[in-house]
Amino acid sequence: MRNSIKNTLLTIACNGLFFSGLAQPAPKGDYPIQPVPFTSVKVTDQFWAPRIRLNHDVTIPIALKHCYSTGRVDNFLVAGHLKAGDKFCTEYPFDDTDIYKIIEGASYSLQTFPDKKLDARLDSLIEYVAKAQEPDGYLYTARTIDPLHPHPWAGLKRWEKESDLSHELYNSGHLFEAAVAHYQSTGKRTFLDVAIKNADLLVREFGPGKLRHAPGHQVVEMGLVKLYRTTGKKQYLDLAKFMLDVRGTGKEYSQDHLPVTQQTKAVGHAVRATYMYSGMADVAAITGDKAYLTAIDQIWNDVVADKYYLTGGIGAEGGHEGFGTGYELPNMSAYNETCAAIGNIYWNQRLFLLHGDARYYDVLERTLYNGMLSGVSLSGDRFFYPNPLESKGQHARSAWFGCACCPSNVCRFIPSVPGYVYAQRDNRLYANLFINSTATVTLTGTAISVKQETTYPWKGDVAFTVDPAKTKAFELAIRIPGWAQNKPVPGNLYSFASQADTPVTISVNGKPLAYKLENGYALISQTWKKGDVIRLSLPMPVRRIEAHPNVKADQDKIALERGPIVYCAEWPDAADGHVLDLIVPDNAPLQVNFDPALLGGIEVITGDVQKARRTTGGPLETSAAKLTAIPYYAWANRGAGEMAVWLATKPAAARPTPAATIAATSTITASHKTKTLMALSDQDTPKNSNDRDNLYYHWWPKKDTLQWVQYTFAKPATVSKAKVYWFDDSPWGGCRIPASWKLLYQTTSGDWQEVKAQTPYAVTKDQFDEVRFEPVQTGALRMMVQLPKDAASGIIEWSVE
Fold this sequence. Notes:
Elements: H1 2-14, E1 34-35, E2 41-43, H2 48-69, H3 72-79, H4 96-112, H5 116-132, H6 141-144, H7 168-186, H8 190-205, H9 220-231, H10 234-245, H11 270-287, H12 290-306, H13 338-355, H14 358-372, E3 390-392, H15 405-413, E4 422-425, E5 428-431, E6 437-443, E7 446-454, E8 461-468, E9 472-479, E10 494-496, E11 505-508, E12 511-512, E13 516-518, E14 521-528, E15 532-537, E16 543-547, E17 557-562, E18 565-570, E19 582-583, E20 590-595, E21 602-613, E22 621-631, E23 642-644, E24 647-648, E25 667-670, E26 697-698, E27 706-727, E28 740-746, E29 752-754, E30 768-786, E31 794-800
Parallel strand pairs: 5-9
Antiparallel strand pairs: 1-4, 2-6, 3-23, 4-5, 6-7, 7-8, 8-15, 9-14, 10-16, 11-12, 11-15, 13-14, 16-17, 17-18, 17-24, 18-22, 18-23, 19-21, 20-21, 21-22, 25-27, 26-31, 27-30, 27-31, 28-29, 28-30
């Protein structure tokens, strides 16, 4: 019984929810619905089980390796005087949190895969952290290493830049979460004592009549609630609420522009936002604060109405890693940070636990299988920070990042997936996710084993075998996904192009059941006995999805979905390497087949479609083509190249392959090499200089310098005109139109000579700037660009005639 209680507390900690304390009674108020602990759910499928194992065997070890090699561990060693040095060893003041999040994930993983070596590694890391903690509990290596010259983001005094960039409280929040996870996993207090000491410092420093700095990057609120649930110390809960209520005098970027109870729109940095909304849900669940609930419900409605990607991603704009305006959902520049997807899962699970409505799990599942899972490679050792819905090859997975929040977040999230499968309230058991597994739950004193048999997400047939310890009356609530009810997402942002007429069926012991549907759940109430079998059949045809007409980026386009999986077309599956030029007519038949050898085993969608190509001075040409679509989460595992989630239904909506112009057949070079040089000659005319759905080349972060780009022609040609469309991502970004530009041509001797311009070199936004010059015959043309004093510049398109 004692081990059972410990496991229950652990997984509730993992999901960021509620559990009893050390020596004090458990909080009385909390979420009305409780998740079934991940330690009580053994996943045995071929989809999630290998990924959970891979996270333990590959992702966590390589993340630890990078923390050692990049100086993150050294920061603690130097701060704790275990290693000589007087300089902060990494780039960002929040780099400490990568260690914390990896410890948190490893702590969860140890419960599934006992590992003495990993356990010992955590002990060593925790010792380093403890040594770096100052006597009063302060823990922030970016200051402790050299208090007189702390990190530039930190300020000269503790906390003075907390509401801006210091991340002191952000570090504390992840510390608290990791310490609770480690304690619940191992029973050791070493890390928990460090966290309590730091939390006690925050209680002394912040609160009514004391410091009133709103956390610049939220998460400390969630961490304090976890500590409260673990220790029973109410001052931690009170401080979490204070740190939410103190907001309202700062920046929209960090959701500090209004008191939290007055916020109704999702704005600013998406990760900060979802962490704050999750913290509000935690506090509201315990305190019963209805104003908090009203606010986060309104914000959730705002997100699903017009700020949510089909893949479950949120945070469209890269400039501030956050939400844009309603319906502004560009595909190629979509940011959709992996951390934001994880934060969105945290938030939606909490809303379900508060309201018991399946629509929150509809969002959670979509994000889980698409926008979150795309963030880690099939090999478990390469990552995406942004997760766009379209690419020309400029996106590639990375082994690590300078800002490594996403890989470490993946480390801690993946082991927790089994804890999202079931939930319970009184005498009701919710089945929320469909994963081949066995689970043990207790409903009103009776132990019940539940076995799920399914090949989901590839097939929609699920069998639940119920084995109660004794004959037991209870209610089973099975989520009927929105996608199985002709509604891909809550709200009207996305819809199926046609309605499916195949019903969802349920049977009990072979007899069809006429079930009652409530809040998206099929409710089955009866007295259950050992061996009872419930069969669920969710039809999984290939579905075409259309976006709301206000989503300009997706007009005259469709996306493909099957079950919870969103699909994309990717370059290796096209004979010519191009997929952005594909056209999927409304009447094109589509087939699906399972390929066990491709990308870890996937269902592949195929069909006969068309391709579009530009012609020189003429209309678009179309030709027959083959479509092969793979799950979006699996893209970029075969190298960088073209990818598209949204596919054209008309030639004009495609990105046709370029016509064979002088520019398109040239070799492109530049003073500053990037992955986006191909943008110059792709012949995609932008809507404006900040067209977020168009590829561009840039010189960022260079400023106030003379830079160049060059076309080396396939063969010498006579040219006399050029047009350029500048990139300018003001106000958020760092590129502005240039100070000036000019053209040079290469002489037969190899020298560069300026052309004789016949028209001025204009520099304007949102249109082509054209210059005419005396004809020259040359093998290469170079554009010299003077960057403005305080910004970089960029180019969306450059044509030559």
